[in-house]
Write a structure and sequence with these properties.
Chain A is of the alpha/beta class. Chain A has 1 helix and 8 strands; from the N terminus they run H-E-E-E-E-E-E-E-E. Chain B is an alpha/beta fold. The chains are: A alpha/beta, B alpha/beta.
């Protein structure tokens, strides 16, 4: 019984350590793109890259490379493009930090997000 | 790729013992063309080469066209006007003139007034003068379908749903392309589901029911959004009926499934084909050699025979 409890604590410790490591890596990989503007594309019914971190004030531009129209719509309607036909663009420049989850309102399986930091 | 599949399928539509599993798949991929005839509660499917069309004449005949995408001009089909005209010619050449047409949405590519105008003008040359529409997601861009409803939905409810009766068959047009949620598929919504429940409540269970909507009301390929999130709820209201036929578009290829008393069918597009589920990186327009294009586009002819629970669904290509 005592052995079992001891093993439980060790396991819990290992799990916590692993979670901490993953979280640290996430923060490391989520280092913002240092640029005044970034280009995203819509291709094959997906947003690319599907996740991205930028700084407040970075101009983000999406270009539709598909033969089918798409939209870029933030789930809380923070930003919402018109319908973008082939090669049309939409630009959004975030002024507040946060995680902006967005999708194509015509093809809602298409989802992606932009993280904005100071 | 000539149309000649001889698969014959049997299922029990009256629960009288032919097939208790109540589930059967009969998939006719774009270009192969299939004829499904329901006779005495048994559904039979033949390839179009079997000349079984003769069985299909009935008391009520109508055609379904879909996904005309007027305004599309990319390499997959640079002349969607010509292919819609070819579809009308095909309809006008049918032995018995259909009484009316159903257009299951994506009438236009970008919801532009000129695109709607052109489709309406082309359809005027069809022998059937009456056309019933439901919108596709391409018909309700920017304005939540206001223009669509002004043109085609004058006597409809909500986002444009409605029902009507023809020769004892009850038709229900549903809208599943509005208020789509991030990560989801097609959506009917609570208000429309309640209306549907009330709409069919007064019907006797022997009434044949035809439901038509743009996006499939069965989950064909959720990865590409080819389905409707709350379709199971809608279908639960139709369980008691002896014969239910569900006609959809959206996936630009013909496909069929029979489940219990319900036959599901998707029609080909008149504009451009799309890949089989999962067969390409995305559901985008499928580019094929010009000489193959019309073998992948088509129209669907539906016949009902009173007393036989018979709705025969025939797909023909534009060749």
């Amino acid at each position: 019984m005592r052995t079992k409890r001891w093993m439980l604590w060790v396991t819990a410790g290992l799990v916590l350590a692993a979670l901490g490591y993953i979280a640290a890596r996430r923060i490391a990989t989520a280092r913002p793109v240092e640029a005044s503007n970034v280009e995203l594309k819509i291709d094959n019914f997906s947003f690319a890259p599907a996740s991205l971190t930028v700084r407040v004030g970075t101009q983000i531009t999406w270009t539709n490379r598909d033969d089918i129209p798409h939209t870029v719509v933030e789930q809380e309607k923070v930003f919402k493009s018109h319908v973008l036909d082939t090669d049309e663009k939409f630009t959004f420049t975030p002024t507040k930090p946060g995680i902006y989850k967005y999708y194509c309102s015509i093809h809602p399986k298409m989802t992606a997000e932009v993280s904005v930091v100071q | 790729m000539k149309a000649n599949n001889h698969d014959e399928l049997l299922t029990d539509h009256n629960h009288d013992g032919v097939d208790r599993r109540g589930f059967l798949k009969c998939m006719a991929w774009a270009g192969t063309g299939a004829l499904c005839v329901m006779q005495g509660g048994v559904l039979k499917s033949f390839g179009l080469g079997d000349a079984a069309h003769k069985h299909a004449s009935g008391e009520l005949s109508f055609v379904q066209i879909s996904d005309s995408h007027m305004g599309f001009n990319k390499p997959a089909n640079t002349d969607v006007v010509a292919t819609l005209q070819a579809a009308v010619a095909k309809i006008n050449a049918l032995g018995a003139a259909p009484e009316f047409m159903l257009h299951t949405g994506d009438i236009t590519h970008l919801s532009k007034p000129a695109e709607f105008d052109q489709v309406q003008q082309i359809l005027q040359s069809a022998r059937p003068k009456e056309v019933f529409f439901v919108p596709g997601e391409h018909d309700v861009l920017e304005d939540d379908g206001q223009q669509y409803r002004e043109r085609f939905g004058k006597n409809t409810k909500g986002a444009g749903w409605y029902s009507f009766d023809k020769k004892g068959v009850h038709f229900v047009g549903l809208v599943n392309v509005m208020n789509l949620k991030a990560g989801g598929m097609g959506s009917l919504g609570a208000e429309q589901l309640k209306w549907l429940q009330d709409d069919v409540a007064h019907l006797s269970k022997s009434t044949p029911v035809v439901v038509f909507a743009h996006m499939p009301l069965w989950n064909i390929y959720p990865e590409w959004g080819w389905g409707t999130d709350d379709s199971a709820q809608a279908l639960s209201y139709l369980k008691r009926f002896g014969s239910v036929t569900v006609l959809n578009g959206h996936i630009h290829q013909t496909m069929q499934k029979v489940e219990g008393n319900v036959t599901f069918h998707t029609a080909a597009s008149t504009a451009f084909p799309q890949p089989k589920p999962g067969a390409a990186a995305s559901a985008g327009p499928m580019k094929v050699p010009a000489e193959q294009l019309r073998s992948l586009l088509g129209v669907t002819d539906v016949n009902y025979m009173r007393g036989k629970h018979a709705l025969a669904v025939i797909d023909s290509t534009l060749e």
